[in-house]
Structures are given as C-alpha cells and as structure tokens.
Amino acid sequence: MKIDIITLFPEMCEAVLSESIIGRARRSGAIEINCHQLRDYALDKHRRVDDSTYGGGMGMLMLAEPIALCYEDICEKAAAKPHFIYLSPKGRMLTQQKLKELSGYENICLLCGHYEGVDQRVLDRYVDEEISIGDYVLTGGELPAMVLADALARLQPGVLSDDECFELESHYDGLLEYPQYTKPQCWRGEEIPEVLFSGHHENIRKWRREQSIIETAKKRPDMLDKAKLSDEERRLAEKIMADETARKPQ
To answer: For residue 210, with 0-12 CB atoms within 10 Å meaning exposed, 13-18 middle and 19 or more buried, which class applies?
Structure first.
C-alpha cells in the first residue's frame, strides 16, 4: 500500500510515522508513506493556503487550488488513482471494519484539514469520503491522519510478524480481546487462569472466546448487536449484561 498525506505539518507526521513498527515497515518497503507540504502548491510568494470565508464568520478556510494541485500531482505519480480521504469531524466514524475495507486499496491519499475546514468545492470534486476518528474536534487533521495511516499500515502484509497479530485482537471480529497474562505465573498472590498453562489448545481457544464475549458484554455491550454469536454465546452475553445492570447503583 502507498499512503500520501497532504498536510501543513509534514515534519509532525514524519516524526511519528518514522518510528517503531511503522517506521521499520517503511524502511523495509512493506508500506510506502509520503508526506506532502501543502504550502509547496500555494499560488503566491507568501505561500498562503487559506483565506476568509464568504458570508462572514470566524476563522479562515483552506483554499481549493493548492489542495487540487497537490492531489493532481500525487495522481500523476501514482500507479492508480488514490482513494482520497478527508479527515473531518463530519465524516463516517473510523472502525476496524472500515479499516478492513480500506486495506484493499493500493493507493490512499489523506487530506489534513485546518482552520475552519476546506473549501467545499474541492471536497465535492475530488474527495471520495470523509472519515472521523471520534465525535470531538482537534486543531488539525494530522493526528487523525496518523491514526488512520498507522491502523491501515499494520493490516498490510509484512508489517506485523504474523496476520494473527491483528486477527485475534479487539474489534477485528466484532468483539473485544480476551485478557492476557505473562510471567510470573503468580504475581503478588494472584495466579493466572489454570487453563492457560494446561497445554490443551482447544480448551484455551474456548476460554479465550468466552472471555472475549464477557469483556465485550461488560465494557462495550453495544458491539454485541453486530457480533456473530451462537445461541449459547448470546445467552452468556445477556447474562453478563444483566449482572452488570443489577450491580450498578439504582
């Protein structure tokens, strides 16, 4: 996958996306991420990329032309037209399911907004979709873009050591991840569940599945509506939710 990020702060993005797992994946060629300085496509000597809004109001708006020029330049150099995403609090909420959908694209371009947003005309003409990382407003689109780039990168072949690293974690299959433990076996008088050192892989698998359902029922019961559960698992989830409701003070 190739990810292009259109931003006013490429150094900010590079600082994060050049480190740890994603940084190693970029250096190995498992994924390509390029950060483009939007001011390089400004039309005046002051490199302005914003102006006041028609109709009045507070703040400035990002100009359409520099964004269009930058995106068109990226398209010319890409093997295929990038799927263009604007990081916006008005967008569709980012979920693991959405990430799985996006992971099928070879080329993705991310636009980081600033000020009061972006001229609607460039959004209407070029942007394929808007995505939000939560119902809150940030000072710019760089943090959401880095979240999306990181989450997408780790789904690509060769970025993590094994696909199982992400296929068994929270949200991937509609449930939260089961509890996990490491050495020592007994820590401050607390033992890990006996099944985990039994060596019986099928029993461990069943325990982890059950614990994922319990964790989800306790912490994110809203996720259970879409989770694929057997009748027995559904009854377990309903019992846990009922117990949690009864435990809460009236």
So the answer is: middle
